[in-house]
Design a protein that fits this description.
This protein has a 5-stranded mixed beta sheet with strand order 4-12-11-6-7, with no helix packed on it. The protein has 240 residues and is mostly beta strands. It is flat and about 60 Å long. The longest helix is centred in the first third of the chain and has 11 residues.
């Protein structure tokens, strides 16, 4: 491996040995990760909880303590996909996007793009679109609404994510594409209705033949959920 410092996406072996040794003691353990990219964690089943802290800076210790001791209800989301094994993704030197990121990865991730937990729980319901059919040349906004309820015992924040995928495309398209997200703060028992705006340009793809963006006619599915995998509500619209 030329010019790099790692050949896989797991933790260094000395750290893995330490994790196995600590977990084998049978005491409660929370794994805190301080890293700059996605990791594979073969020992994930040995720990009941994981906190991804990235590189938190000088206030990171205080922030981490507030989360671990429950003073703050966490609401962060992963901006990348965590894979189970280095073999799940193409070689680093291959530049094709196939098999990479939530947009093209078809396997089962360790933690999906957009994943994050909370000390409360949220329910999604009543996903609707303002129009079922829109012309391909339209510049109007299609509105997607969904109700979110904090059904737990603590106030908290949810990050609702909206993904779109083409169901009838004549060309290879991503599995799905993030086209909106909203953070909403809800007290326990509270419900809020979120609205996402979509335009035809949001489902366009770049056509190498015409060297321009193309809006393809057909049916599209809207997915709304707590991550790219944890989809809670679906609805559809058609471009004509």
């Amino acid at each position: 491996f030329h010019g790099g410092d790692r050949t896989d996406i797991t933790l260094p072996e000395p750290q893995r040995r330490l994790l196995r040794a600590v977990a084998s003691l049978g005491k409660p353990v929370i794994l805190v990760l301080l890293n700059g990219s996605a990791l594979a964690l073969p020992e994930i089943s040995m720990v009941p909880a994981v906190v991804e802290a990235w590189y938190p800076g000088q206030a990171g210790g205080t922030a981490l303590a507030e989360i671990l001791f429950g003073d703050v209800n966490p609401s962060g989301r992963l901006p990348v996909t965590f894979y189970k094994d280095t073999r799940d993704i193409p070689p680093f030197a291959e530049y094709s996007m196939e098999g990479r990121t939530y947009r093209y990865f078809r396997g089962e991730p360790l933690f999906p793009f957009g994943h994050g937990l909370s000390y409360t729980s949220f329910a999604y319901a009543n996903a609707q679109v303002s129009r079922m059919r829109i012309p391909s040349s339209s510049q109007d906004t299609l509105w997607v609404s969904v109700d979110i309820t904090n059904r737990g015992e603590r106030d908290g924040e949810e990050v609702a994510q909206l993904y779109v995928r083409a169901l009838e495309s004549s060309v290879a398209r991503p599995v799905k594409e993030l086209r909106g997200f909203q953070r909403v703060s809800l007290k326990k028992g509270e419900t809020s209705t979120l609205r996402f705006g979509l335009q035809t340009k949001d489902v366009a793809y770049f056509d190498p033949g015409s060297h321009d963006w193309t809006v393809e006619k057909g049916e599209y599915e809207v997915e709304i959920g707590a991550s790219s995998v944890d989809i809670r509500e679906r609805t559809r619209f058609r471009i004509e």
